Each structure stands twice: as structure tokens, then as C-alpha cells.
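Journal club prep — side note

Before the paper discussion, L.F. wants everyone to see what a predicted structure for a comparable chain looks like in C-alpha cell form. Sequence:
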Amino acid sequence: MPAIDNLAGRALTTSSPDLPFRLAPHNIEAEQALLGAILVNNDAFDRVSDFLRPEHFSEEIHRRIFDVASQLIRAGKIASPITLKTFLGEQDLGGVTVPQYLARLAAEATTIINAGDYGRTIHDLALRRGLIVVGEDIVNAAYDAPVGVSPREQIEEAERRLYAIAETGRYEGGFQRFSEALTTAVDMAAKAYERDGRLSGLATGLTDLDRYMGGLQPSDLVIVAGRPGMGKTALATNIAFNIARAHESALRPDGKAQTINGGIVGFFSLEMSAEQLATRIISEQAAVPSYKIRRGDISEPEFHRIVDAARTMQSIPFYIDQTGGLSIAQLAARARRLRRQRGLDVLVIDYLQLIGASKTRSDSRVQEVTEITTGLKALAKDLNVPVVALSQLSRQVENRDDKRPQLSDLRESGSIEQDADVVLFVFREEYYLKTRQPREGTEEFMTWQTDMEKVHGRAEIIIGKQRHGPTGTVELAFDAEVTRFANLAREESLPEQF
């Protein structure tokens, strides 16, 4: 079989030790065996179609054969030497024509039983070749880096490319028995029963919200939206701090730490600096207004509360990245690095519209936001942690009498509403009512004052969407002085009054 022997022989001769380079890893024989099996029995294609791509083959002719064969089979047609030769054209393969090569591939084909093994061999060798290319590019970029490119950017680009290789054509997926999914569901229920608060997800520390949602669920994309001044960031920092403060871990049999309560928090603060965010959290936890902390206008008891809050913050697993203008790829790379180095149980992003667009900039901001939300949802599934992303609302809320937000108020709402598993709206009636104060001494002022008393210190968390639970409204207490959300005291929980 001269054609096949020629290709295999070429692999042997080019790997001669006299040559100044090493040949990239490949296996011509495995490629030929798989293609021959597919040409003889198209069922062999089904065993490799979910992970193998034409670019995984090392020989150009093999890429073309696999590409044409896959197109024919997916179109419900037969892929054979006769049907393929029409689409491949003429080419000299060491003295053998393309039709002759196809015929000999089929004639020398082995059983399709080994097709999956051949496919995995080809796939793994392609990954190794990809690693070699990335490695060479990293070395060359490090030697010849432009003045404006920092080493950190090079590292993030390398991480992105390595992750892209890892995600290309994964073959460990596919169907699983329903009994395996049932086992996973029962295990989740058992862990929820054992965990504080009887929750299947991470407890936010806000009891009524947890009762609606069952905590923050792994792989969920949670959008927290609201108009400026409603307290989006405050709600996110409250939840993040509560989760980090409750963190408890235990060692698994393999020596790695496993979270058993609370969680490790990664917080991307794209709007505020780390110092501003830390001041805000200290203010919330010490119950001292942040403006007083900045001025130094604090009493001795307040100073001691600030010290105690700072001491608590130092010991909890709360990690902040204050870099502005991160792209979704850079954000994902940093989140994966945090998980690898420190662990990660929940990711918070403040806020979605500040995530930078990709280098291939789109003409439409809607398309850019679609790319961002799709990337965040994929990141949540990949890391298997809840991703909480804050989002702005459009100004059309201000034009309605009832200013409670709706899903349609989300900026570029199509993609955000579609990709999110949970959408929470933060709404405070007090914020709007305060701006409509009538003149004192009038009847309208008395009515306004009564209304203000009803809504003072209260906030609503409107669950506008939830894939695995009900929608509705949760009332929370809100202290505007220190921007802190807390559980609202229930009447049945108050002591009896005489």
C-alpha cells in the first residue's frame, strides 16, 4: 500500500536526529485507521463526532477527508470512497491519486470497535501540538514584547489560550444514566439537611431571601439590578461578607480543603477601589457612617468597633480585584487562577456594564453585553460556583408612577434576562418619596410624613426571575447611614406588648 506507507514513512524520515528540529507529535497510522473505519462503516463516525474535529488531524489530506465525510454523514448521506472523491479534487500523494488513496484506506480498514480509541489518540496528540504552539508563542512574546505590553497581560493571554485548548473537543461529556443524576440530587439534599439553615446553596445571611431562593446555587448566574442609589453594591457586599464570615472548611481524604459552610469569595470591583470597598464594608459591619470614617470624626466606642470589624475582615477568605476595564476573558482567567490558588465558592462582579468588550469589538453594545452575559454563565457552569453580577437599569423606570423595576427595565435586557438564572431588583420607596416632600404645615405634608414612616428603613428585593423557585418580593431592613441590609423583624418574633 504505497500511499499509506509513504505518509507513515515520511513521519519516520523527518524525525531523523540529524535535523535541527523535533517533529510535533502525531500518529499517521491512527488517523488512517480511523478514516478507513469511517469509510467502511459510517457508524464509526458517531463514536468520535462529539469531540473530534478536522483540525485535530496532522495531515492536510486527512483533515479534508474527515471534514467532507462529516458533512456528508450529518446530511444523512453515505460517506464512501466513491462519494468523497468528487469533493476532494486532484492531488498527488507520492505517486498515488486521491481516489486510489481513499480506496486503499477503506481496503486496509480495521474494525470500528477501536474507532473511539483511535479518535482519542488523535485528539490528545492534537492537544499536545497545540501546547507546543502556545509554548513557542509565550517564549517569543517574552523575548520580543512591545513596550506597552506588561508581563501580566502576557500571562493572562497565555492562560486564556491554554484554557481554550483544554476546552476544545472535550470527550468526557455525553449522556449519563438518569440514576447518576438522581444520586447527585439526593446528595445535594443530604448536604442541605446537614448545613446550617437547611439550604442547598450558599446562605446569604438574609433569612427571608434564603427562604425564597434556597441560598445561592452552584453554576447560577444571579443578576442584582437597580437604579443608582438603591443599594446594589451594598446588597452585594453584605451578602459577600456574610458568606466569607461563615466560612468553615475541612480536609478531604486526599488532603485538600473542602468548604462545609459559608464560602471563599472573589469580588471584582470594577467601579470602586479596594480601599473604598474596604471602607464601605467596615462602615457596614461597625455601624459607623463611612463619611465619619473618612473625616476621622469618630468617638472612642466607634473606633473600637472599627478595629474589631477590621480584625474580622483580615481573617476571612474575601479576595478583591480592583482592576478596571477587564474583558470577560481576563476576568475568567483571574477567577480560575483564584480558584486554583486559594479556592472559590462565589464570584461577585460590580458591575456588568463595566466589563470591557473583546478585542474584536462589535458595532452593537447589545451584542457586546450578550457576549459578556454568555461568558459569565459559561464561567459559572465551568467553575460550578454562583456568579453574582450587578447591573444597571434603564431610565424608563423614572418615567412611571410605580417605580418598581421590571425585567424589561434591564439595560440590553434581551441577553441579561435570557442568560440569568435569577434576577433580583433592589427597590427602596423611601428614596423616591424623600424627593417629593411637600411644604410643611400642609395636609399633603401630613400624608407624606405618614407614608415616609411606613417605608422608612425598609427595602424590597423583587425576585423578577428564578429558574428553580418562585418569584415574589422580600422585605429587608436598610440602614442608609451605613448602607447595610438586614433581616426585617417579624411581628410574630417580637416580644409580647402590654
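L.F.'s comment for the group: The first strand starts at residue 221 and ends at 226. Keep this in mind when we get to the figures.
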